[in-house]
Every structure is written in structure tokens, then in C-alpha cells.
């Protein structure tokens, strides 16, 4: 069976520690005998971060624009290029600091209709001191963008904790919880975190492994033991903004699929995919939004998978997977 390549989006403002985390993740995967690949996006014409990473990792650069606006349409083609040319085991997208991850997420899920990839996480890095300063003003474009980057994260790395006090940490966690109740918060210095986090995020049962993850986590700085002890199980049991991608092994019954869509929980607010039904001749593109479903007959040019992608907040991926497996 063809493997599904996991994709992780690394988000956060310039200087928050994204490239440092990316380098650690790439080293981890290479040492594990796996092949990582990277898409790096910068506003300017020269990607200095790419020069830092060297030539041992397949990498595509998207310059002179932001994935979420001027060159968003190229994202799918960039992913496809890495997918076909290098067959990586995992793909990281490091977005420019001014990108809204929700828009990037939409671009990745569009690409998953054409190739076997699945968005597994959005990890937002936050400069602790920067967030403190912005939270005092509570206005402006930068403040709103950081809020959006935090809102849609599955995991939040609160970096540069050596620049704030332990008392300020509590205030920072309160600010983050106003915007994102469910994401795990990892206070760090120099983005130093157990990189096995990415393996955990690859797994649909990530929520069941959180206690094990914390028990084995290396703690390079004395701030790092603070992971929402007051209600850790609650905060770690679900993602916030979530994507579940399901690839079908064979055609299914259209009526059963239609009934499943009608019974989707309200937390799933968007779905899309390409379907093949046992009782219909054509293949179909389906779109689901605002509790309405649209099926459009298509004749794909080339080989594309049968796939359904579900986007929402705090829904059970396992419940949807079980229902789809029954089809």
C-alpha cells in the first residue's frame, strides 16, 4: 500500500525560533533513517534560512511572496514536486512570519486531493517577550496575526523563556489559553524540545500518548516542566483546529457516504474530497460547508486518489475514521 506522507507546518514570527526547531527536527529524522523534505517560504528574494540548512535535505523555496496570498496557488505544485522527485517520509513547511497558518492549511488540504499526503500538525513558535509586549497593547496587525497563529496551533512552543520570569510565564499561559484552550504549551529555550513530538503528532491517537511523551521528555531548562499541570489531561486530549485526511482503498456506496456526511458533528465545518462510488459510473469532487454538500462529476486527468479531508475544531478523528472504515 502506498504510504501517506505526513506534513507539519511550522509557524511563528521572524526570530521566534522556527529555523532552530526545523534543524533539530531534520537531524532527528535523518538520524532515524528517514528522509525529511522542506518547503521554505520567505517574503524576500533570498532564503537565508535555506542556506543554513545545507544541501543534504530536499528543499523547495517559495520566495518573493507569502504562501497564504500571492503565491498560494504554487504550494500544491511545490508539494507535488517534492512528492514525485524525492519520495520523502515527512514534509515540513516553514512559513514566513507574516503568514496566517489557516490559509496554508487550506493549500495543503487542496494538495491532498491529488497525492497521498496528510496535514498532521500546525506548530506555532512564540517569542515569549514579544507576546508579552504585544499583549499590553492588544491591538494592531502584528497582535492580531500572532493571535491567529496561536489559535490554529496543535502545539505551541513558548520560546525564549530565559528572557521572562516564572511569574510572567503564568501570565503568558493565560493569554494563550484565551485564544487556544486545547493546544499543548511547551515553554522552551532555543526551541529545545523532545523532537519525538513530531512522531506523536503523526499518530491519530496522539491524545492517548501525551502522558508517555511528557514522562520521557528531556528538560534542558528549569522552566520546561510547566505543562498545564492544573488540567493536563483536558488540555492535551484534543487538538484545536484539526484536519483529518482519509484515503479509501476501494469504491464505496454513495447513500452510505451521504448519510455519514449528514451525521457529521457540528465541529466539522469544512470537508472536501474525490470519491468513487460503487453505484455510480463517474468519479465525483465533493465539497461540504455550512452543513451543505455538493457533488460534481469529474474526469480526472491522471492518477488521483480517492480521499476525504475534514477540517474543524476539537472533533474526534477516531470517530470519523471508524465511520469511514465501515463504508
From TrEMBL:
<dbReference type="InterPro" id="IPR027417">
    <property type="entry name" value="P-loop_NTPase"/>
</dbReference>
<dbReference type="InterPro" id="IPR011629">
    <property type="entry name" value="CobW-like_C"/>
</dbReference>
<keyword id="KW-0143">Chaperone</keyword>
<dbReference type="InterPro" id="IPR003495">
    <property type="entry name" value="CobW/HypB/UreG_nucleotide-bd"/>
</dbReference>
<comment type="similarity">
    <text>Belongs to the SIMIBI class G3E GTPase family. ZNG1 subfamily.</text>
</comment>
<dbReference type="GO" id="GO:0016787">
    <property type="term" value="F:hydrolase activity"/>
</dbReference>
<dbReference type="InterPro" id="IPR051316">
    <property type="entry name" value="Zinc-reg_GTPase_activator"/>
</dbReference>
<dbReference type="Pfam" id="PF07683">
    <property type="entry name" value="CobW_C"/>
</dbReference>
<dbReference type="Pfam" id="PF02492">
    <property type="entry name" value="cobW"/>
</dbReference>
<dbReference type="InterPro" id="IPR036627">
    <property type="entry name" value="CobW-likC_sf"/>
</dbReference>
<feature type="compositionally biased region" description="Basic and acidic residues">
    <location>
        <begin position="213"/>
        <end position="231"/>
    </location>
</feature>
<keyword id="KW-0378">Hydrolase</keyword>
<feature type="region of interest" description="Disordered">
    <location>
        <begin position="213"/>
        <end position="235"/>
    </location>
</feature>
<keyword id="KW-0547">Nucleotide-binding</keyword>
<feature type="domain" description="CobW/HypB/UreG nucleotide-binding">
    <location>
        <begin position="6"/>
        <end position="181"/>
    </location>
</feature>
<protein>
    <submittedName>
        <fullName>GTP-binding protein</fullName>
    </submittedName>
</protein>
<dbReference type="GO" id="GO:0005737">
    <property type="term" value="C:cytoplasm"/>
</dbReference>
<feature type="domain" description="CobW C-terminal">
    <location>
        <begin position="247"/>
        <end position="326"/>
    </location>
</feature>
<dbReference type="GO" id="GO:0000166">
    <property type="term" value="F:nucleotide binding"/>
</dbReference>
Amino acid at each position: 500500500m502506498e504510504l501517506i506522507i505526513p506534513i507539519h507546518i511550522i509557524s511563528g514570527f521572524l526570530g521566534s525560533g522556527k529555523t532552530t526547531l526545523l534543524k533539530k527536527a531534520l537531524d532527528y529524522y535523518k538520524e532515524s533513517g528517514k528522509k525529511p523534505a522542506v518547503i521554505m517560504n520567505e517574503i524576500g528574494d533570498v532564503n537565508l534560512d535555506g542556506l543554513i540548512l545545507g544541501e543534504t535535505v530536499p528543499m523547495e523555496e517559495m520566495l518573493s511572496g507569502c504562501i497564504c496570498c500571492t503565491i498560494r496557488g504554487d504550494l500544491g505544485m511545490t508539494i507535488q514536486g517534492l512528492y514525485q522527485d524525492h519520495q520523502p517520509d515527512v514534509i515540513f513547511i516553514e512559513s514566513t512570519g507574516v503568514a496566517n497558518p489557516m490559509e496554508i492549511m487550506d493549500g495543503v488540504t487542496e494538495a491532498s486531493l491529488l497525492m497521498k499526503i496528510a496535514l498532521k500538525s500546525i506548530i506555532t513558535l512564540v517569542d515569549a517577550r514579544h507576546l508579552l509586549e504585544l499583549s499590553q497593547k492588544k491591538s494592531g496587525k502584528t497582535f492580531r496575526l500572532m493571535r491567529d497563529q496561536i489559535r490554529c496551533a496543535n502545539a505551541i512552543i513558548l520560546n525564549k523563556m530565559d528572557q521572562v520570569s516564572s511569574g510572567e510565564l503564568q501570565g503568558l499561559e493565560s493569554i494563550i489559553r484565551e485564544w487556544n484552550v486545547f493546544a499543548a504549551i511547551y515553554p522552551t529555550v532555543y526551541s529545545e524540545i523532545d523532537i519525538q513530538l513530531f512522531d506523536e503528532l503523526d499518530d491519530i491517537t496522539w491524545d492517548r500518548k501525551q502522558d508517555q511523551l511528557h514522562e520521557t521528555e528531556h528538560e534542558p531548562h528549569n522552566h520546561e516542566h510547566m505543562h498545564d499541570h492544573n488540567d493536563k489531561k483536558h488540555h492535551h486530549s484534543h487538538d484545536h483546529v484539526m484536519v483529518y485526511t482519509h484515503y479509501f482503498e476501494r469504491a464505496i456506496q454513495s447513500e452510505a457516504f451521504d448519510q455519514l456526511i449528514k451525521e457529521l458533528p457540528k465541529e466539522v465545518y469544512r470537508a472536501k474530497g474525490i470519491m468513487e462510488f460503487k453505484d455510480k459510473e463517474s468519479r465525483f469532487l465533493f465539497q461540504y460547508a455550512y452543513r451543505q454538500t455538493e457533488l460534481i462529476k469529474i474526469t480526472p486527468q491522471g492518477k488521483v486518489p480517492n480521499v476525504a479531508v475534514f477540517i474543524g475544531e476539537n472533533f474526534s478523528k477516531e470517530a470519523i475514521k471508524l465511520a469511514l472504515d465501515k463504508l
